[in-house]
Specification:
The chain has 321 residues and is an alpha/beta fold. The chain has helices at 15-28, 43-52, 59-79, 94-102, 116-129, 171-183, 201-207, 214-230, 289-298; strands spanning 33-34, 84-88, 108-113, 138-139, 157-161, 190-196, 239-246, 251-258, 262-266, 269-273, 278-285, 302-308, 314-320. α2 runs antiparallel to α8 and α3 (59-79) runs parallel beside α4 (94-102). The protein is globular. The N and C termini lie far apart (64 Å). The protein binds N,N,N-trimethyl-histidine (AVJ). The site of N,N,N-trimethyl-histidine has 11 residues, from β11.
């Protein structure tokens, strides 16, 4: 039978897809085409990211876990008993288990994540493992609004923001986010954040260009997502993964590069790509310890303690509001 040609009119898209569409159109209309890295995390992308964390070259997750394991006693002493824990970008909630195992009488755990599926799976498994713990999942894009549901009671609040997700923000945006989180807290409340450190360029390069190509698949998955959700017509074979360390900016940049001159249709828009042109899909800023402490202090935080690994590749900070 004859099929109707697929044409997407923005009006027919569900609300979330519509804001994705609008962001895509405005991002691809810029001189340097770009997409926000939050769009990596559909169901497939969240799985691919979990796979990245197991790849040998990707030191980030492994190193942070090791730091958390070795500083857990100090961390518990900073947090104290009976606190409420709020996690930003909780993902599979693997790291929080370290804390949940050791902390005394938490009043509640509030994981916030943009990936619905992963969030509900994580919460289901956590509520089995910790039946006494009140869990309040929030599926939200915390880059858009930081309004949280009320936390019952009046305990000390501690925000947990691991994974160096803060590295995805431009320094000015990172400042803004830190200032906004500070507004959620009272003096004496805590903020635990994992921040990736500047290091040997080769190590960085390999971490974002793993030999198995998992990072490449993660990056290119956003094209699949646009094809699926926005009925775009990206030809996947004609695009390639490209990641490098931009030393001047102190950041890893991930791009998707067009192999040829081509056009891509998305809804009512057509985008031209010339051979070699890229979409900038992610920046991952790397900090020095004191550089990050300075940033935090400009946002109203006092640095209480910082932990790192023997090679000084990653840092975990405890700040007090
Ligand atoms: C989610 C920000 C920690 O920048 O390392 C991994 C995501 N991108 N490989 C990072 C990512 C490519 C990641 N963070």
């Amino acid at each position: 039978a004859l099929q109707m040609p697929q044409r997407t009119s923005a009006r027919r898209l569900p609300l979330q897809t519509r804001s994705f569409y609008q962001d895509v159109v405005s991002g691809l209309s810029q001189e340097q085409k770009k997409l926000h890295p939050k769009y990596f995390y559909d169901e497939e992308g969240s799985k691919l990211f979990e796979e990245i964390t197991t790849v040998s070259e990707y030191y980030v997750t492994r190193t942070e876990m090791a730091i958390l394991q070795s500083c857990i006693a100090d961390l518990c002493a900073q947090i104290g008993a009976g606190a409420s824990l709020i996690e930003f970008g909780s993902g599979s909630s693997r790291k929080i288990k370290l804390l949940l195992n050791e902390l005394e009488a938490l009043s509640c755990y509030m994981p916030i994540d943009i990936a619905q599926e992963m969030l509900s799976e994580a919460c289901a498994s956590l509520s089995e493992a910790y039946p006494e713990l009140p869990i309040i999942p929030v599926c939200a894009d915390f880059t858009r609004s930081l309004q949280l549901p009320a936390i019952p009671g009046n305990q000390k609040k501690v925000i947990f923001y691991p994974g160096s997700t803060i590295g995805n923000f431009e320094p000015m945006e990172a400042m803004l986010l830190m200032k906004q989180t500070r507004q959620l807290l009272e003096p004496g409340d805590g903020f635990i954040i994992g921040v990736d450190l500047k290091k040997d360029v080769q190590v960085l390069h390999e971490a974002y260009n793993d030999r198995q190509g998992v990072t490449a698949r993660f990056n290119l998955n956003v094209l699949r997502r646009m094809n699926r959700e926005l009925h775009a017509d990206f030809q996947l074979e004609e695009f390639e993964h490209f990641a490098y360390y931009n030393a001047r900016e102190g950041r890893i940049e991930m791009h998707i590069r067009s192999a040829i001159d081509q056009q891509v249709r998305i809804g009512d828009h057509v985008f031209d790509f010339h051979a070699g042109e890229t979409i900038h899909t992610e920046s991952s800023y790397k900090y020095d310890i004191d550089q990050f402490q300075q940033l935090a202090s400009q946002c109203g935080y006092a640095s209480k303690q910082v932990w790192t690994d023997p090679r000084q590749w990653f840092s975990v900070h405890y700040f007090e509001a």
